[in-house]
Known about the structure:
Layout: H1 3-9, H2 14-37, H3 43-46, H4 49-78, H5 88-113, H6 133-151
Helix pairs in contact: 2-4, 2-6, 4-5, 5-6
Amino acid sequence: MTAATATRAAPRPDWLTVLRRYFLFSLMGHLLWEVAHVPLYTIWLDGTAGEIAFAILHCTGGDLLIASSTLLLALFAFGSGGWPRRRRAPVLLAAVVMGVGYTIFSEWLNITVREAWAYREIMPVIPVIGAGLTPFLQWLVVPVAAYLAATSRLSWRGTAPG
């Protein structure tokens, strides 16, 4: 066996496969969520089709950066060399807590302080924190679903279960 053959035959590390899958599942989930809840923002009534499309893409890109950053921070703080086979739950919990925390801060900053966007009257708002319900739920549902899909045994085809 040559060195080139050995390199081609070597399986990718679990963590790399899982990170790639998490990125892809997050992208799909956040894009779908942004499309679904954009009618709850005033841009739906006031914006042009181009502005709405840009907002969806812009927000999805931001969501992907937040999802990636919170997962990496969670891995640094709570992961182990055996991740994703070990320490899956603490990493997921930390990533979700950071994502939800950032979302609450961002919604407050951009709605109350900067007035960069606004909710329509049909947006359910969480009492006390004043954040919209759908952005809050987005950061519970999408990261959990993406993480579970990325770390499922189906994600590890070609690698032996640990």
